[in-house]
Write a structure and sequence with these properties.
Strands 3-2-1-4-5-6 form a six-stranded parallel beta sheet, with helices on both faces. Strands 7-8-9-10-12-11 form a six-stranded mixed beta sheet. The longest helix has 15 residues. 40% of the residues lie in helices and 18% in strands.
Length: 339
């Protein structure tokens, strides 16, 4: 996003507008945090702003300031469609292709609103008038901070906005341990704490409040963990029956794939989660070093993401999906063993 883009956006935002903020399906901490931080920022300037999520977010994110104002497209479709059609500006955050929004794809594609993309994923579609796309960034929340900084308005970041931004940066960096965490990331986090983000409380709200059933489900996933040493790969799976047994709720499998990646000499980790309602198997992939799970997911699993963190889906059965995954590893054997 160049200086001319910023000047045009400043001019657009100089008078109150009807604005919709949208993010991707199955929203995570970065999606919700970036959307709500921008919502609070725009509300300071009397813009009529609404955040619309394609579907509901996990319960451990519903404490984030402003979450009570969010619309969920799957539950409030008619109102959401009206707001999208009436919007003058639509911010698309933490995704770069409309199909990532599920059932919102068509109304977003048909909207005449000016689109502004802020995102850090690879291979963006060209739907936006203004694009702030940078794969080197740790998170969309970090990009929102930079965006406000480009508008020369970081003085207007308050404790509420800082809290939202902290959530997204913390979750997308794995509590600041992933390679995407830079010195700039830490400088921004320090500024957010100075602005009023309570770092220990935020961490507790997101990570340290578990149900008994969620821990039992984690135990089930760990029991199902398999290692393929010749491919330096670990994978696990959860069937629909296992999810039902432990009263699965959205977000309960967040971070489970990282347990496989924590094993000694493992470069690639995967989790396969059966979803009978959508008739798919959801796939999360994680890697170390330069091995790109983004490329693997795009090539084989109808997905994508980042070099070291990506997601996808399979229309095969759970067992067939796992068999297919194992079969394609042979073509990646040299790359995995070179890490």
């Amino acid at each position: 996003m160049n200086k001319q883009d910023i000047e045009q956006i400043k001019q657009l935002l100089s008078t109150p507008k009807k604005i919709v903020i949208v993010t991707h399906k199955n929203p995570d901490g970065d999606a919700v945090g970036s959307s709500l931080s921008l919502y609070h920022y725009l509300s300071k300037y009397q813009h009529k702003t609404t955040v619309i999520l394609p579907n509901d977010c996990p319960s451990f994110l519903k404490w984030i300031p402003g979450a009570e104002t969010v619309l969920v497209y799957d539950y409030q479709t008619e109102l959401s469609n009206r707001l999208i059609s009436e919007a003058e500006i639509i911010f698309t955050l933490d995704f770069n292709a409309f199909h990532r929004t599920g059932n919102m794809e068509i109304p977003l594609s048909e909207s005449d609103a000016l689109k502004i993309m802020i995102d850090h994923h690879q291979a963006p579609d060209g739907y936006a008038t203004f694009m702030f796309s940078d794969v080197s960034m740790s998170s969309t929340c970090e990009m929102i901070y930079h965006f406000i900084d480009m508008l020369k308005d970081t003085n207007n970041i308050d404790a509420t906005m800082a809290t939202c931004l902290y959530v997204g940066i913390m979750t997308d960096t794995g509590s600041f341990k992933f390679d995407c965490t830079t010195s700039t990331t830490h400088h921004i986090i320090a500024k957010l704490i100075d602005k009023g983000a309570n770092n220990s409380q935020i961490h507790n709200n997101v990570y340290d409040t578990n149900s008994y059933e969620r821990l039992q489900l984690l135990g089930c996933a760990l029991k199902n963990l398999k290692i393929l040493p010749e491919y330096r790969t670990a994978y696990t799976s959860l069937s629909q029956e296992e999810l039902n047994q432990y009263n699965y709720k959205k977000g309960d499998t967040e971070g489970v794939v990282n347990y496989g990646l924590s094993l000694d000499n493992i470069v690639l980790a995967a989790i396969f989660i059966e979803d009978k309602q959508e008739n798919i198997v959801k796939i999360s992939l994680r890697s170390k070093g330069h091995f790109s799970v983004n490329e693997m997911s795009r090539a084989h699993f109808n997905g994508g993401g980042h070099t070291n963190a990506a997601g996808g889906k399979s229309y095969l059965s759970l067992n067939e999906t796992i068999e297919n995954f194992i079969s394609i590893l042979a073509s990646y054997k040299n790359a995995l063993n070179d890490e």
